[in-house]
Amino acid sequence: PSGSLLYPYGPDQGDETNPKHDDGTSEAITLSVPFIFYGKTFQTAFVNNNGVISFDEPVRQYTPDPFPLVDGHPFVAPYWADVDNVLGGDIFYRQTTDPVLLEDISQDISQYFPKNPFTATWALVVTWNHVAYYGSTSEKGNTFQAVLTTDSKMFYVIFNYWDIQWTTGAASDGDAETGLGGTPAHVGFNSGDDTNFYNIPGSQTDAIINITTTSNVKVPGRWVFRVDDFQV
Question: Where does the NIDO domain start and stop, copy by copy (predicted)?
Fold first, then answer.
């Protein structure tokens, strides 16, 4: 979308598209550059329809739980809620070394973290495009994006929120007409070690619908974190 925070996405960018399955997931993605998250190195990721990028194994759970999770699953949750891409929307992803995109990412991160000069060499770009919620009787859709990126020394995650219209699927006690109420979406990072985690303010409250207006880098709708040695 014009004026959007989102980095380019879609089939014309070479993106893969997730299957149309409720609680579905991508195939295992072998990362061309191993990704360090909370001090551990991962070489496999899954793009899960329900707003989660997980390492080593998929996450099909649709109602979010508070972090830290005790099940040991390390993952990044740009918007963990009950997405149903059968009812509407698409989930796209690609690994990229495109120099134009990497230059944009590098400039953005260097602006937000000026003490750590950063030149991206790789990124995984994942976009949820106007995705519906489970049980929806409306036309509401959420559009958001998560980017994992590195220069092989530092590892960052960028969350971009463009249009958030619902917080909750009907199986999580949400209202089928509004997509609100019940157990709202969770946004944050779960290390998998039972101890370390980060919840973005408003997670699992009705206020999470306003995430397009909040930020930790003074850009409404964008949150950026260094995640190899997690820093808030």
Answer: 78-230
Predicted local confidence at residue 1, as pLDDT: 54
Q: How far is 188 from 5, CA to CA, in rounded Å?
A: 19
Mean pLDDT of the 209-215 span:
97
**Contact 181/168 with Cβ under 8 angstroms?**
yes
The number of C-alpha atoms within 13 Å of 77 and in the hemisphere containing its C-beta is 34
Tokens coding 14: 């070479």
Token code pair at residue 133: 């919620």
Would you say how long the chain is, in residues?
232
Question: In this predicted structure, what is the pLDDT of residue 162?
Answer: 97
CB-based contact 120:224 (threshold 8 Å): no
Check if the beta carbon of residue 145 is closer than 8 Å to that of residue 98: no
At 22-71, the pLDDT tens digits run: 899 999 999 999 999 999 999 999 999 999 999 999 999 999 999 999 88
Give the pLDDT confidence score for residue 132 in this predicted structure. 98
How large is the C-alpha radius of gyration of the chain? Answer: 16
CA angle 212, 214, 220 (to 5 degrees): 65
Long-range contacts of 196-199 (CB under 8 A, 24+ apart): 196/38, 196/68, 196/230, 197/67, 197/68, 198/67, 198/225, 198/230, 198/232, 199/66, 199/67
Domain ranges in the chain?
11-226
**CA 143, CA 190: separation in Å to the nearest integer?**
22
Using the predicted structure, report yes or no on whether residue 192 has a pLDDT greater than 60: yes
